[in-house]
Design a protein that fits this description.
- The protein has 169 residues and is mostly beta strands.
- The strands form four sheets. Strands 5-10-7-8 form a four-stranded antiparallel beta sheet, with no helix packed on it.
- Strand 3 (61-67) and strand 4 form a beta hairpin.
- 2% of the residues lie in helices and 37% in strands.
């Protein structure tokens, strides 16, 4: 597990199980398991994890946010492969909130990510923005942070991203 700046998480920051930040397990073919983090800090940490396997593997991450002992919200993310471009559906209507989290998994080198916001008819909204990601770095932002000054009220459309200099996850 890595911090946004690519440094490893320390066990006291985001332990998995019993104070470790790396975890090895064996699964039979078509088997499954759950890995829980034990984050007792008073603030949310942001970063990314690398999963390696000897064969095909699938999975998802589910985030729960608790307030006053009750689950206030929940979000999920499916695993991704390294890509040089992708399209992400964006829905900012009612209580929906799309966001973007991207990491540069390369052990060396930086990647420049170019992002363009398109409306439902495929027209560009605002200017294309770029963001540099150093080796092992990550960012997680909401659309209004990526495209400041663009009116995104009740927006539905897509975000098109292209990586130059490497691949992202």
């Amino acid at each position: 597990m890595f911090e946004q700046d690519g440094t490893p998480f320390h066990s006291y920051m985001m332990p998995i199980g019993k104070d470790v930040v790396s975890h090895t397990l064996s699964l039979p073919a078509h088997g499954c398991t759950s890995v829980w983090t034990a984050n007792s800090s008073t603030y949310t940490r942001s970063g990314w994890a690398r999963v390696t396997a000897d064969g095909p593997v699938g999975g998802s991450v589910i985030y729960d946010y608790y307030r006053g002992g009750k689950r206030n919200s929940q979000a999920g993310i499916n695993p991704s492969s390294e890509v040089s471009e992708f399209l992400l559906a964006m829905d900012l209507r009612d209580d929906m909130m799309s966001g973007l989290a991207v990491a540069n998994p390369a052990g060396a080198g930086s990647v420049t990510l170019s992002m363009t916001l398109l409306d439902r008819e495929g027209r560009r909204i605002g200017s294309t923005v770029t963001r540099d990601l150093l080796s092992l770095h990550q960012f997680a932002l909401l659309p209004d942070q990526l495209f400041p000054g663009v009116n995104l009220e009740d927006f539905t459309g897509s975000l098109v991203a292209k990586a130059v200099g490497g691949k992202v996850i």
